[in-house]
Design goal:
Distance between the termini: 11 Å
CATH topology of the largest domain: Nucleotidyltransferase, domain 5
Number of strands: 14
Number of domains: 2
CATH class of the largest domain: Alpha Beta
Order of helices and strands: EEEEEHEEHHEHHHEEEHHHHHEHHEEH
Largest sheet: 8 strands, mixed
Structural class: alpha/beta
Number of helices: 14
Strand content: 15-25%
Bound molecules: adenosine-5'-diphosphate
Helix content: 25-40%
Amino acid sequence: MNVLVINCGSSSVKYQLFDMADESLLAKGIVEKIGEGVSIVKHAARGQEVRYEAAIANHEQAFDHIRKALMDPTTGVLRSADDLDAIGHRVVHGGEAFVQSTLIDDKVIATLEEYSALAPLHNPPNLVGIRCAAKAFPGKPHVGVFDTAFHQTMPKHAFVYALPYELYQRGRIRRYGFHGTSHRFVTMRAAEFLGIPLDRFNAITCHLGNGCSMAAVAGGRSVDTTMGLTPLEGLVMGTRSGDIDPAIVFHLARSNGWTLDAIDALLNKKSGLLGLSGLSNDCRTLVEAAPTNERAKLALDVFCYRIRKYIGAYLAALGRADAVIFTGGIGENSVPLRRQILEGLDALGIELDPAANEVRGREAIITRPSSRIRALVVPTNEELLIARDTLAIAGKQG
Ligand code: ADP
């Protein structure tokens, strides 16, 4: 079974093709800057990488390029569309309707359209991706894998906001959480790695990339997470503020005359590591600059402190934890930030091993053998989990 995984954004389409017989990656690529005049196509397969520029006006044309790349006589990996068995789509917001990955039909598309209001930046392009892929590869089963689905097991006291209850009942305003596919992947992998049955595995998962979120996982199921109605809540991120006093919004609007759009851009695009440091949203740049740049150091201090606070909160929420798991670009690779986050937590049962922590991009335990709670690095692979779900669901159809 060959499964194509699609991650469709507003101006880009990323794709990966898996041979699910051995879960090997046959090809991957991206079409970027769609509709921006000069678009860029990158395709890697059979140990070769192709990159070219083209005028790609819309997503439909982007899928023509992907189709051609996958079936190219020299660098392609599919002889014809018959070699493709199913397509899995990353969908950001599945709301309360989708608690697990789902075969996409017209009813599913209609429900996702309803959720577009909750995720206006993400769901509309995800839907465009589903439509274009159906056109480019007709007759194939399509499966939606939702960023929100893993967190649908949260208890109500963790997901409702202390707002008038009607806002939840009628307006669907509640915590949904995101990065669910990543939190689920690393949870399953860490339980396997540690030899603990998933239904008895309690963990705190930290997905630290450009977007950052944590989840409290009890018995393999998410019981709390830091992102909320939108991906803005919770941790400090590359350019997002995470938790702030919501009254800051009124203050900016009333006292400084800011428009809602300007505040939205401020909190989502100009805050976080970038806003605090004034230098970069990339933690590598900040780690390098920190010894001589006070604001770079402050940005990293605020970033790590927020994560430590949530580790404490989630230990209390869980009562007992087997593991703290790090993933995402920062979680997998940043030795100094993992150290800053975990150092001095021995009394809580997390004893960091500085030597073991010198690991980048591979699975490892980074706490001492005596540590009651183990901290681990687990590289995430959301695409593979999307492919697995797609295979499981599409396989049932055939
Ligand atoms: P995204 O959330 O867009 O998928 P990533 O998961 O790649 O992003 O995370 C981006 C962050 O990871 C950046 O802050 C970057 O500095 C950090 N990062 C990526 N690679 C490394 C590395 N080798 N060492 C330290 N930090 C890294």
